[in-house]
Protein: Glycerate kinase
Organism: Actinomadura viridis
Amino acid sequence: MLSADSLPDHPTGGHVLLAPSRFKGSLTAREVARHLAAGLRRARPAVPIVELPVADGGDGTAEAAIAAGWRRVRVEVSGPTGRPVTASLAIDGRSAVVELAEASGLRRLPGGRLHPLGATSLGTGQMLAHAVRLGARRIVLGVGGAACTDGGAGLVQGLGGRLLDAKGRELPPGAAALRSLHTLDLRGMADLSGVEVIVAGDAGGALLGRNGAAVGQARRKGAGPEEIRVLDAALRRWADLAEAASRTAARDRPGAGAAGGVGFAALAFLGATLEPGIGLMLDLLGFAGKARGAHLVVAGEGALDVQSLRGRAPIGVARAAARAGVPVVAAVGRRGLTGEQLRKARIQGVYALTDIEPDAARCMRQAGPLLEQLTVAIADEWLPRRRSAPPAAL
């Protein structure tokens, strides 16, 4: 394990790169970075600091791009229950970051009330269409935090496709209505033939089956056993007609079940590719260049546990830092990994809010000030003050 003793005296070792993700329920990634920077500046005023909030395709993905200098574009779209919401997407030249959670996420549910049968990805399709109208030719679609289990049918509707029943009536948004689906009319769909769409997030499994969008995910979105059966049947009907219309077999491909099946629609209708979210975002945000010459990288997340090992932000940051030859530590809300797991993840040290405040509720409420306190330990162990030169001999 590396330690400060094996590093050059600071500040000659370079800057500190702050690359945290959000603390769920407490702070955005940008807020975490700002609190870490404030604490470090008090502890080591001479330390050069670079803030780079990150995300892995879930909540905060668009904000991470905006914090890195991408242009924010606000657009009014349909929320997961049909109520209008104002969502943000990020634009940089001909590239865009569209975050599903901005339009169709759990945090957009009115009053937080889950809506498993009716929640829709319609607003996400509307955001994609808006990005294309703005001239985007490369779109990163972050798919974490979805409220819907509609197989991406709403996304197709948001792009201008029409879903019709046997009498030619347009179906309302939401998965339950898909049981009555008879025909797809794609003549009005936005033309994305020249647009590269990359789905960023955990690839996950197929659309249907034991680990699919309904059986594997819908319980977390409020579905009971009967509702899960309804959803699975609706998604099966949707897959049959969608594959026939798109002439693409996508239901069994890895990632088809992502975000309640939005991955399926992206694969079938948009020709999308799938990439691990954090690696893709670090490339977009220019992590490698910002890590070059750094003395230390500080990652961060609300909980560093076994779920993190599935490719969440701190693990991706640690691996990228290792490729750059820079040690990385993590500032977290709570830790749940063994020393061996941390070693394999390339994380040299973990500093948790629960180390200085055992009350978890207070950690949530006071995460910002506590993070600033936590930086004292990071500075003491990894950013030694410049050693004084010995007096000259007389």
Observations:
- The chain has two domains: 4-54+298-382, 61-277.
- The longest strand covers residues 84-92.
- Residues 61-277 form a domain with the Glycerate kinase, domain 2 fold (CATH 3.90.1510.10).
